[in-house]
Design a protein that fits this description.
Layout lengths: L25 H16 L5 E3 L9 E4 L16 E21 L2 E19 L5 E7 H14 L14 E3 L5
Antiparallel strand pairs: 1-2, 2-3, 3-4, 4-5, 4-6
Amino acid sequence: MALRRVIALPDPLLSRSAKEVGAIGEDALVLASDLIDTMYASPACVGLAAPQVGVSMRVFVADVSSHRKMKGRRCNGLVVMFDPVITCSGTVEVAREGCMSVPDLTCDVERYSHVLVRGIGADGNELIVEAEGFEARALQHEVDHLDGLLIVERVAGPHGIFPRQVYR
């Protein structure tokens, strides 16, 4: 198990578009494995993108299956995707989001309710993931990281930034 340090604002890497992976080699697979380990070791984390651990590669991992918002709902489980391309549809909804790279804030963010994400899976084959609701929101959030965007840049309105609540 290899845990990586998650970088936070104002690190400039978080504002840059990540580089395409192309062919999936050993380095990319190790990175994906480390992202999975880091995500699962981080409380309340449902996704993590390579730029968040200081690596400019278009790869993310996500797993919303254990989140309270998914209770009783179908989801894709663990998603590991390289070079994703996302198509959004459905209605636009505003909801609160947090981010490990913006540790002190949460933001109200507009996201589409349905997505189709195409990319390359860990096996090197094409992977297509369809998601709705909270899972769709999580996937859009991770693809934003690959494009150099953070939740503070996606705030829905002038009063959409909040101090993160600390629960004991």
